[in-house]
């Protein structure tokens, strides 16, 4: 499977000041696609995944699956994975470096083959991102773990049922544990699990594969089986892309209809936007309309695990606060260093003060176009949003960060009337 997008440090050139108007469709969820594609490793039967977005991270996942010996084919609207001939259990540094979610192969490889070797994921720009919780579940299930020369080597001769309470709520930690325990025929219990829609989408897939999973509050009871079936599944819409487009429609003073969404996944985002003064009309369960009829009101935001306000929307809402009519407070509770976008927004005239995990944002009359640099996926999205409302021209560099998680964002924005061009690398 050829990598359909290459890592190029393209830039976006944006002329600000245009209200967005029209209809736009949201792509499938990146953070549901990755674990669901990787779950195909659990079965020797063919798996079909629909609505997988065309992103750097999904292309990297195809590459990783093929590295392990699976056959991956992207057809019109679907990805077909055949993991019947998987014969390699090593996720190399060259891949894990690019995408830390590669650690998700540990659960399935251990479950089906009893072996996995994964390059130790380094930290990234938003935080240490430890995986101690993942490893604790593996140990509880009887895995022998050795970290040597930067690689985590895991061996599991006979899987044991697990009773474990996560010490922190972790999305991929929950996903790795569920996939590991899908191979255990005895009853396991996981407590304090993550409930993000992307985790629940993976649960749906595992049920289709033949795993019994019962979830109540934050407790999951799992009873797996030795030979799991293949599956066909349509990935849920990307709630973070939807939220990003909603913020864009509001702060540009536009009128945008967003389609192919799951309104029930957007509760906290809709609430916060309404609090800021956005007019949000639910058209049906899969579409809504956002209008920006007045200046944004200031907000108090505190990120939390789902169903709380998503950390992946923090940078985007910070732009809204930068042009709000008053002082906002944003507290980032999930990651210890997720304010990389602040310095770049300050270059555009934003008035932001950060102390520890709290940013105080004083709304300004306007932002001014500037040359700014992406540092991570959601930070780059916030710089694009800032460019859309800034006076004058903004150049956002290192757009490959954005291409990891947004499918053709510039085309979607352009279709809504934005003046945005992708510049070749120079
Ligand atoms: C997932 O990352 C998402 N990525 C992230 O989205 C998202 O920001 C994050 O969940 C939180 O919602 C994918 O799903 C591929 P965590 P993940 O484990 O699973 C600590 C994006 O923009 N922790 O829920 O890596 C950790 O350090 C990306 O699309 C431990 O201490 O996040 C963090 O502070 C960015 N030990 C907190 O928990 C562990 O073993 C939440 O991390 C695991 C996590």
How much of the sequence lies in strands comes to: 25-35%
Mean pLDDT: 95
The helix count comes to 14
The assigned structural class equals alpha/beta
Task: Let me know the number of strands.
Answer: 24
Can you tell me the CATH architecture of the largest domain? Alpha-beta prism
Report the major sheet. Answer: 4 strands, mixed
Q: How many domains, in number, for the residues?
A: 2
Rg value:
21 Å
Share in helix: 25-40%
Strand order of the largest sheet: 22-23-1-24
CATH class of the largest domain: Alpha Beta
Q: What is the secondary structure topology, with strand pairs?
A:
Elements (H helix, E strand, L loop, with lengths): L10 E5 L5 E5 L4 H10 L6 E5 L5 H12 L3 E5 L2 E5 L7 E2 L1 H4 L9 H8 L1 E5 L12 H9 L3 E5 L2 E5 L7 E3 L5 H11 L5 E5 L5 H13 L2 E5 L2 E5 L8 E3 L4 H13 L3 E5 L7 H9 L3 E6 L2 E5 L8 E3 L11 H9 L4 E5 L8 H8 L3 E5 L2 E5 L8 E3 L3 H13 L3 E5 L2 H4 L5 H7 L3 E5 L3
Parallel strand pairs: 2-15, 3-14, 6-7, 10-11, 18-19, 22-23
Antiparallel strand pairs: 1-23, 1-24, 3-5, 4-5, 7-9, 8-9, 11-13, 12-13, 15-17, 16-17, 19-21, 20-21
Bound molecules: ligand EPZ.
Short description:
Helix content is 31%, strand content 26%. It is built from 14 helices and 24 strands.
Describe this structure in words.
This protein has about 425 residues and is of the alpha/beta class. The protein folds into 2 domains: about 200 residues, Enolpyruvate transferase domain (UDP-n-acetylglucosamine1-carboxyvinyl-transferase, Chain); about 200 residues, Enolpyruvate transferase domain (UDP-n-acetylglucosamine1-carboxyvinyl-transferase, Chain, Alpha-beta prism), CATH 3.65.10.10. It contains 14 helices and 24 strands. The strands form 6 sheets. The protein has a 4-stranded mixed beta sheet with strand order 22-23-1-24, covered by helices on one side. A 4-stranded mixed beta sheet has the order 2-15-17-16. The protein has a 4-stranded mixed beta sheet with strand order 4-5-3-14, with helices on one face. A hairpin with a 2-residue loop joins strand 12 and strand 13. Helix 1 packs parallel to helix 2. The radius of gyration is 21 Å and the shape is elongated. The relative contact order is 0.16. It binds ligand EPZ. The site of ligand EPZ has 26 residues, from helix 1, helix 5, helix 6 and helix 12.
């Amino acid at each position: 499977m050829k990598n359909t997008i290459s890592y190029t440090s393209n830039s976006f050139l944006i002329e600000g000041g245009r209200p967005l108007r029209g209809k736009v469709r949201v792509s499938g969820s990146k953070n549901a696609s990755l674990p669901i594609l990787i779950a195909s490793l659990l079965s020797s039967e063919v798996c079909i995944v629909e609505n997988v977005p065309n992103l750097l991270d999904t292309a990297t996942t195809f590459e990783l699956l093929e590295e392990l010996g699976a056959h991956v084919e992207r057809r019109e609207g679907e990805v077909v994975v055949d993991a019947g001939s998987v014969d390699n259990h090593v996720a190399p540094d060259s891949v894990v470096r690019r995408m830390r979610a590669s650690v998700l192969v540990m659960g399935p490889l251990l479950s089906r083959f009893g072996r996995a070797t994964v390059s130790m994921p380094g930290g990234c720009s938003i935080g240490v991102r430890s995986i101690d919780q993942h490893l604790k579940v593996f140990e509880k299930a009887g895995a022998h773990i050795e970290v040597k020369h930067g690689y985590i080597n895991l061996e599991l001769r006979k899987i044991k049922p697990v009773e474990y309470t996560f010490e922190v709520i972790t999305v991929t930690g929950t996903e790795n544990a569920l996939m590991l325990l899908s191979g255990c025929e005895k009853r396991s219990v996981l407590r304090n699990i993550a409930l993000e829609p992307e985790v629940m989408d993976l649960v749906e897939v595992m049920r289709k594969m033949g795993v019994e999973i019962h979830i109540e509050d934050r407790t999951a009871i799992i009873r797996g089986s030795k030979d799991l079936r293949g599956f066909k599944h349509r990935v849920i819409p990307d709630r973070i892309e939807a939220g990003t487009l909603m913020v864009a429609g509001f702060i540009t003073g536009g009128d945008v209809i967003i389609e192919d969404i799951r309104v029930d996944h957007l509760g906290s985002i809709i609430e916060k936007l309404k609090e800021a003064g956005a007019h949000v009309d639910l058209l049906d369960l899969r579409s809504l309309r956002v209008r920006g009829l007045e200046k944004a009101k200031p907000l108090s935001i505190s990120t939390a695990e789902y169903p709380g306000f998503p950390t992946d929307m923090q940078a985007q809402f910070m732009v809204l606060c930068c042009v709000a009519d008053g002082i906002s407070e944003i507290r980032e509770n999930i990651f210890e260093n997720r304010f990389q976008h602040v310095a770049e927004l300050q270059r555009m005239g934003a008035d932001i003060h950060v102390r520890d995990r709290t940013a105080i944002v004083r709304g300004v009359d306007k932002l001014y176009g500037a040359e700014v640099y992406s540092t991570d996926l959601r930070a780059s999205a916030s710089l694009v949003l800032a460019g859309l409302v800034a006076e004058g021209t903004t150049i956002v560099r290192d757009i490959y960060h954005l291409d990891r998680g947004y499918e053709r964002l510039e085309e979607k924005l352009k279709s809504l009337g934005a003046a945005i061009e992708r510049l070749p690398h120079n």
